Amino acid sequence: MIQFDRVSKRYPNGKDALSKVGFTLPAGQLTFLTGHSGAGKSTLLKLIMMIERPTQGQVLIDNQNLNGFSNRHIPLLRRKIGMVHQNHQLLFDRSVFDNVALPLIIAGYARADIGKRVRAALDKVGLLDKEKLNPIMLSGGEQQRVGIARAVVNKPPLLLADEPTGNLDPALSEEIMDLFKDFARVGVAVLIATHDLSLIARYNHRLLTLREGRLIHDGDESGEAHGA
Amino acid sequence: MAPNNTNKGKGNRGTRSATPIKPGRQKAERPRRVAGAHSAQTSLKDRFISWRQHHLDSLRDALQRLNAARASSAMTILVIAIALALPAGLAVLLDNARAITRGWDGNAHLSVFLDMDISEARQRALAEEWQGTENITRTEVITRAQALAEFKALSGFGDVLEALPDNPLPPLIVVFPDSTDPVTLRALENRLGEADDVDLVQLDVEWVRRLHALIELGERLISALTLALAAAVVLVMVNTIRLAIESRREEIVVVKIVGGTDGFVRRPFLYTGFCFGFAGGLTAVILVQVALWWLGGPINELLSLYSSEQSLTSMAASSLVILPLFSGVLGLLGAWLAVGRHLGDIEPNF
């Protein structure tokens, strides 16, 4: 689903954010991405979202080389990627329903279809009864689940999460993780960037570790190397 | 709505995630496939309906936002209205001036004063002779006696004239030319001046030409004013939309993250610009009409004093529609410029 082939990113200020990073994420796998702040996690996510472009190497999403994408194609790429943010990035000037419906409206789904899909997504995260509320009235955990519903409502093949449990207590984190595992089970490639080591330790998933822009570890939490 | 299309979409999605990565095909992959995959998710018909829906939504959203910030919207609209009402109002007044002088053009004439000693019969014969010749539509004879009577009645110097031994006024033939072209008139003036028994030819159109020149100057000034104020409207809109973009920064970021195209992001702002412009233009029409109503009484009185049959005409019906539309386009242009300049600055970050 995602393929990084010797990807390097150097910012205009001369800082090397990523150096020759290479890995492959297959569909249906849940993978953690970790590293200290400044290790390159955000840059890696930005390259996938095409917020930044690599200086060297190539990124492939769904077998498509992003180097061949013009800016015009970026929106279409992003529709294949569900993105969950630490700060939820919800819009407080509209209801939960409208927040979740946004990707569908953008992608041009039919009205009747939108209602069905939004409710299915809200049902999945257990917030079906809150669709009419403003997200500001929800708790942090609920807001995060609205964010997840929005990320998955158009069933993207790839789900990215940036510190999804950053502000949540362990019980809520577990709920969120269960959701992510469910999505991986139905074939979604899930990449969770986090520095929450206790979260990583609790689940035995594949772990990518970045340090100063280099991929220094690729395997499960126990340290066993994952297939090259 | 169109359940068949959505079924097709679901089918595609089922196979999508099971597709294994085929490294061998990487090079051949081109972005076009993104569009292909996308249109498989939502049919063209759905996308068209949704596109149209988004236009309607954008328009409604723009109007709602205008209404939500009523006071500041009203200010912006009034600024636009005043900027446009000024040239529009002046243009209406100028139109009136032009219509009036068109009436006066017909009155352009040459006064041909004859020698004092010719007979009335000779005077009439000359008038008869000129009538129908080149560039002359008709002639009018004013005998010395008629001239005296008219002068007495109009000038108020009747008593003085009574005291004179002779009638001092010469016989006069008024010649009405068929054109107001200066060259033709000059030629006609020369021709009549050279005729026998003619003392003096006086061309009475100088002031009409001066007026024409003034009106032309007025037109130029209004054009320049219109250009300057239209630019002002555009700039006002650039600033208004820039602020609107700034206040909706978060929304723009989210829309971009979930795959909104630039067009999708741009649309509500363009509608906002158009709505501001249109509302401003409509208000300008009202301002002009109110001003004309206010000025109508005195102006009509003035016109009647100049013994014109014209009365003040208000804006043409077409302008009532054209002005708001023109203004709407200006608003749209301003919004377009603002969006082009500032939307690119807002990119997702995390």
Gap from first CA to last CA of chain A: 15 Å
CATH topology of the domain at 1-73 and 191-228 in chain A: Rossmann fold
CATH superfamily of the domain at 1-73 and 191-228 in chain A: P-loop containing nucleotide triphosphate hydrolases
- How much beta of chain B, percentage-wise? 5-15%
Largest sheet of chain B: 4 strands, antiparallel
Q: Give the H and E element order of chain B.
A: HHHHEHEHHEHEHHHH
Helix content of chain B: over 70%
How many discrete structural domains of chain B?
A: 2
Low-confidence blocks of residues of chain B: 1-40
Query: Which structural class do the helices and strands of chain B define?
Result: alpha+beta
DSSP summary, beta strand count of chain B: 4
Spatial gap, N to C terminus of chain B: 38 Å
What is the subunit arrangement here? heterodimer
Report the strand count of chain A: 10
